[in-house]
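Page 42, continued from yesterday. The earlier attempt failed because a stray header line got pasted into the input along with the sequence. Redoing it now with the clean sequence only.
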Amino acid sequence: MIFIDTVKMSLNAIRSNKLRSGLTLFGIILGVASIIGVMTSISVVQKTMEREMTVLGTQTFQVQKWPNGFSSDEQRRAAMKWPPVTLEEAQAIREQVQSVDLVGTEFWDGGKVATFNGYSTEPMVALCGGSPEYAENNTHFIANGRNISRMDMAAHRRVVVLGSALAEELFPFSDPIGQQIRVDGRKYEVIGTFVPKESAFGGPYQTLALIPGTTYTQIYGLTDGRGFERSANVTLHAITPELLPDAIEETRQVLRRMRNIKYNEPDNFYYFTSLSQIDQFNESTKPVKIGAFVMGTVALIVAGVGIMNIMLVSVTERTKEIGIRKSLGAKRHNILTQFLIEAVVLCNVGGIIGILIGFGLGNIISAVAGFDANIPYEWALFGMGFCSFIGVTFGMIPAIKASKLNPIQALFYE
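This time it went through. Structure tokens are written below.
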């Protein structure tokens, strides 16, 4: 009952000094909201990323020249000097790595236009010159028709498998299988369509046009428009999840031998799995987390100084009340506890508001980008704990001052 009464007295004190309390609460709200908002937005992206990486499977990894999307400028500059990943290297991996059962190759080119019966799409088609392993290694399976085959590869056939959104746009009222379309001005026969697969990170699954890799290199060559040799993305599927580390190491050793990399030299290619991408994302967001934490901490410390000043003023205003309580038998620890609870309540009122605002701001990204909303409750608990710590730390001096007041002098204080 004493604790409940103390909390009520604290809330009454906040209400009776609205402007002063509001300015103090603003600092707490700003500090907590900045921390919770940033951590929530990062958590939203991370949870969505983990879900999508899980879709890729626990047995698949990829080897390529270029780093993934969460890389640094330094990594990209280093990759510019590296040799491309070639089809010969992919074939060597097929022949020498015993712990994988599927090895696929992909060449990518975006911004293409697809046309059918005079209708043209926007230049948003992602053209992929791939191998039959594309569907399995990317868990992007065939919905209708068939996948590209080894025969298609051997004969350089002009056939294409369409992403679900692209198929729907070109053939809203008819079956696309067997129809002739043009992609980037060249004619292809549609042999299949993929199941719908959306990506919150802008992946090309929906607007994909998959053609045989041999057809791609026959049309576009093994060098791009600037004379640079094209680099293949090699996707590999380990026989079992337990063999994934062995598969990665065996693949590394094959490539290092073919590239004559010395034992003390680093790899000049990248490989990544679902987990490594998540780890790299967490590493790349560390500076943002640290920055948000530092800014929030500074704001909370400033707010703590404000709380200390408010409590000192409150002690002065309530000197006679303290004298009455002491004359009625209240001990020093009772007065100390009362003022500490008031400081903690004041901090946590601002903390709760800040947490709610932070959750709202952080999840705006989910509404805008189509990510899954997420509430990191562990950060909410951290925010409340941090607010309590600020309240106790900065409320201690006023509380000690109040507990040490002489009851006789306090009773006659005007």
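Notes: The mean pLDDT is 83.
Reminder to self: strip header lines before submitting.
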